[in-house]
Hints:
This protein is 23% helix and 26% strand. It contains 11 helices and 20 strands. The chain starts with 5 loop residues before the first helix and ends in a 5-residue tail after the last strand.
Amino acid sequence: MVVLTDEQNARLTEVGPGTPGGELLRRYWQPVGASAEVRRRGVIAVRVLGEDLVLFASEGAGFGLVQRRCPHRSASLAYGIPDENGLRCAYHGWYFNPEGRCIEQPYDDLVGNGTYKERIAIAAYPVRELGGLLWAYFGPAPAPELPRWDILVEEGLSREIGFTELPCNWLQCMENSLDPVHFEWLHAQLSNYLARRRGEPPVMTPRRHLKIEFDLFEFGIFKRRLLEGDPETSDDWTVGHPILFPNTLAVGTTFQLRVPIDDTHTLHFNYVTRPLAEGEAAQVEVPLVAVPAVHENGEPVLESIIGQDMMAWVTQGPVAPRELENLARSDRGVVLYRRMLVENIERVERGEDPLGVIRDPARNEPMITLAREHNHLASMGYRGAPVTKQLVATEP
């Protein structure tokens, strides 16, 4: 199978403003933070798609996402003061609303005619809250609909947002999702090998992949597998996992969202849901937890499924050298996904909407329900360690 040249690789992996891949990703709403954390802290610094920004909670104007550098004397707005209508720079009090317009310059307004501020604006992006996440749109107006995926809006669910900052390009995370065969080795065989080294019994029952298949649908690709011992009526084969183009994997009642920080770093959200137990109160807010990719000694977390995935993504390097690859038949999904990226980059370059962008509000209501398979981990008898988590501090 054909591998990518350096130039082709850059076209898919570079995410900054004006790059082909970056312009594609800017046509979709991207999760940029957790609403509970931003409300608690007031302002947080974020870096998304190669841009240094601040995410803030205004008391009366909702959430805002604006450039980090103040246009006055370049002080960081990450240390700004949010209040009723926007965010003030702590240096001289210049005041910006969530749309990026300067609405007050305290000294100049006092001694001047008060019109200089009308010529000052900063980069700003619309932000909406959904499912405990804050989503931002970085593309041209008008913004499309923010997809109301079922597990983001369905009642009766408990939710949790795990996050990890990874030192690798986002595409390495996504290509893993189009590679079903890695499961029996990276997860089943490796988990059992590590258990054996610890003097423990196997934690999984490895089963070979007999068939893999990939089906296109309106929002991306369904990845299907038939495991040894399963009938062809199994939902892993008849349904599979939806990959939501361009950067989300749905597994059971979870999402994995891979948001590019820049060309060589990714913010990985692990969005986990479960039904509320009988008598369990509905959540007031969705908790945010850190999911480390490495132990304190710097070794990768290999005791969990997601930790094993992260090891495989990160060890490919900051940007995987795809010109060195030797692709095989098991990589058909990766090739399909790359072609989909190329085709949709070209659509954006022609001024068209890419795959899955929703313009009709009726398509988005009351929610978009995705077909999903049952938990395939259970089918392999997984008895591994849970994901290691660290609660995010509640103080500012």
